[in-house]
Specification:
CATH superfamily: ABC transporter involved in vitamin B12 uptake, BtuC
Radius of gyration: 21 Å
Shape: globular
Strand content: under 5%
Helix content: over 70%
Distance between the termini: 40 Å
CATH class: Mainly Alpha
CATH architecture: Orthogonal Bundle
CATH topology: ABC transporter involved in vitamin B12 uptake, BtuC
Length: about 350
């Protein structure tokens, strides 16, 4: 017994949140730097630093680093963090291990509106903002479905019923998208299919600032709900006895989760499996269900995972870029299957 105690103590020391947060933060920072350095053109850390201290450099190198590499790398970090926390909130809400941020039809709502723009050339006569119509349409579709789901949530107490409503919304949106695809021209279908694969390429600094400010504010509010979320894990009756307004709290969870997922989907397209798999990884790594630890932990882990997947998508068959959703699916699906088999989760 005495011989095992040091090993046990060492194991627990590495599971301390502070150590894990530091490790995940370092991994995320390293992957962010690698995403900026590595590409069709390689930039050394010294060149990156030179570009950072001279932000107004008009050379080709400075343009690529400041306007292509850095926005994409930051977008991957934010996208992974937001999708992971969105999935965590929904898994707490439904108490279901395979729920993700797109299970409520948010992705389908974004897709159907983008299909109207890309497959029918819908611009509503506003030619000035036509380059941004895809993002605006995806944003409107994602939040339109979100508002429907939140309205239903305010009237329905059964989580399974709400889950079915979300699935039906997804099927309805998919039906409309399929009809538009069947009627569209071949040239337009190609661009729409590429959008559906998900990508963080082409991000602009204006979009990054929106993600940072709006998404950051939502993340702070979610963290402030950590204690009510922990109470909600014990059941609605227990949470209500602790002073939680269940109806308002349920709407807030759905609103915040849908807002984060819809924000990323509107600018990057659907990114699969991140919100479903990463919360499980965070629970296993941190060894806790305390949302005060899991919310920042899932954020850092999601940022690292998506940054790694984005790097793989760009570099495995360079200069051809693989679909990001395909890489995240290869990453996330085995984790979900393994979890279901190992723990014999009942759906």
């Amino acid at each position: 017994m005495e011989q095992t105690l040091p090993g046990v103590a060492l194991c627990y020391s590495f599971r301390r949140p502070a150590v894990l947060f530091a490790a995940l933060g370092a991994a995320t920072a390293l992957l962010l730097v690698l995403n900026v350095c590595i590409g069709s053109i390689f930039f050394s850390p010294a060149e990156i630093w030179q570009a950072l201290v001279h932000p107004f450099d008009e050379s080709v190198k400075g343009f690529i680093i400041w306007n292509i590499r850095i926005p994409r790398s930051i977008a991957a970090v934010l996208g992974g963090a937001y999708l992971s926390v969105s999935g965590l909130l929904l898994q707490v809400y439904f108490r279901n291990p395979i729920v993700g941020p797109f299970i409520l039809g948010i992705s389908s709502g974004a897709t159907v509106m983008v299909s109207f723009v890309m497959l029918t050339s819908l611009t509503l006569g506003m030619t000035v903002i036509s380059p941004f119509m895809t993002t605006l349409a995806a944003f409107a579709g994602a939040y339109g479905v979100m508002l429907i789901v939140v309205a239903v949530a305010s009237r329905v107490r059964n989580g399974i019923t709400l889950l079915i409503v979300g699935l039906m919304m997804g099927y309805l949106c998919h039906a409309v998208t399929s009809i538009l695809t069947a009627l569209a021209e071949k040239e337009k279908i190609k661009g729409f299919v590429l959008w559906q694969l998900g990508s963080f390429s082409g991000f602009k600094w204006s979009e990054i600032w929106v993600l940072l400010l709006l998404g950051g504010a939502i993340m702070v509010m979610i963290y402030l709900l950590s204690k009510p979320l922990n109470a909600f894990l014990l059941g609605e009756e227990s949470a209500s006895s602790m002073g939680v307004n269940i109806r308002r709290f349920r709407v807030m969870i759905l609103l915040f989760a849908s807002a984060l997922a819809g924000m990323i989907t509107s600018v990057a397209g659907p990114v699969a499996f991140v919100g479903m798999a990463v919360p499980h990884m965070a629970r296993l790594v941190f060894g806790t269900s305390d949302n005060r630890t899991l919310i920042p932990g899932a954020s850092l882990m999601g940022a690292a995972v998506v940054s790694l997947c984005d790097l793989i998508a760009r570099m495995v068959l360079s200069p051809v870029e693989l679909p990001l959703s395909a890489i995240t699916a290869f990453f996330g699906a085995p984790i979900i299957i393994g979890l279901l088999l190992k723990r014999k989760v009942q759906l």
